[in-house]
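JOB MANIFEST
job_type = single_chain_structure
chain_count = 1
residues = 426
[input]
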Amino acid sequence: MTRTPPAGTTVPPPTAFSLLPWLLMGMGAVANLVQGRTPNPWVGITGLLIFNSLYIYVVWRAFVKELRQSLPTRLALAVMGLVTCGLALGYGGSWLTFFPLLGLAVGAVLRGPGLAPAGLGLTAVAATVAAFRSGWDAIGIAYGTFLSTMVTAAILSLAETVGELRAAREELARRAVEKERLRFSRDLHDLLGHTLSVIVVKAEAARRLAPSAPEAALGQINDIESVGRQALTEIREAVTGYRRGSLDTELTRARSALTAADVEPVVHRSGQPLPPPTEALLGWVVREAVTNVVRHGGGATRCEIAVHGGPERARLTVTDDGPGTSPPGGGRTGNGLTGLTERLTAAGGSLTARPGAHGGFTVTAELPTPTDVLGARTAHTGVRDPCAAPTDAPDSRTAPTDAPAPCTAPTVSGLPSGCATPTLGP
């Protein structure tokens, strides 16, 4: 009864030891030598030793691709063929079984396009020699030679292919792990870098305000608590891989962080609404760029953020009026912007970060905006997205104080907060 290996068990591939037991097929020739029925026994013994030695040599090298295709292996195989033909022609009978053994060696070495001509040629030679020595017994020798050649080559080729597929699967798994680690490290850098910078800035503001304005200092402390709780939520989402940033949320946080750092925020939004994937990537850019302004702005007093959704590409520009130079260590263009550049490039966009022409520092991001996504959203509803920024959005600094709150993250009901709820009746 054949035992099936348990599921998930890896069956070891065949090796040279798998072909060595087939040498027992030559026991008939050995018996003839022992019983003295072979004329010129020393010739037979010498030929037997040469054949067995070459068989072991060839089979051992057949399982290493470089050695299998080398010239010494092919020459040894050719010498085996000559020895086999000489012994079969000289003695016949049991010595004809060396042709199937030769077929095993040929099948182990010649895998690929050259196998069929070699197998057919060896079968024809075996049939001719066997017919000359044993008549109709040549059919069995020819069949055994052809079968041993082709079956050996098929089994070993299949085993080699399975090994390559297994190696490819392991490589893909390793790359998937590396990709996930890279994603997590980027998300963690972007999340913690921004959050810790905001916490430090607000803590400094609370310390300055505590002696003279305790209520304002308490407000900054409350903001620190909110930022910390939000960071915990975002880190959990980053670990699970389902975090998707919101551009509106990041713009709101950017205003808060810049204001706490005594940097005047100026935000402009224009053009058509952007698809969620584009907004998510641009939200990461806003977070990283504003973090750099807060941490490395070097005396910047004003930061302008401009978002424009064009028919084919979306463009985000973050400009500050700082000194426009990077601190030692390249902080303005460190790991965060490098990782974002790779992300935007993979999405078909680009990101540049350089000192401005008239001072300051400028970060520019561009991404393609699929028109079919935007058109489908507008055509399906027949109305403009209520949370879309108008093309002539006013400067955030001059917005009236009694204006309705802007649309931000969706509420539990699925409707954006701050937007009017549609009714079904008149």
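[summary]
The two ends are 80 Å apart (CA to CA).
Confidence is low (pLDDT under 50) at residues 327-331, 372-426.
exit_status = 0
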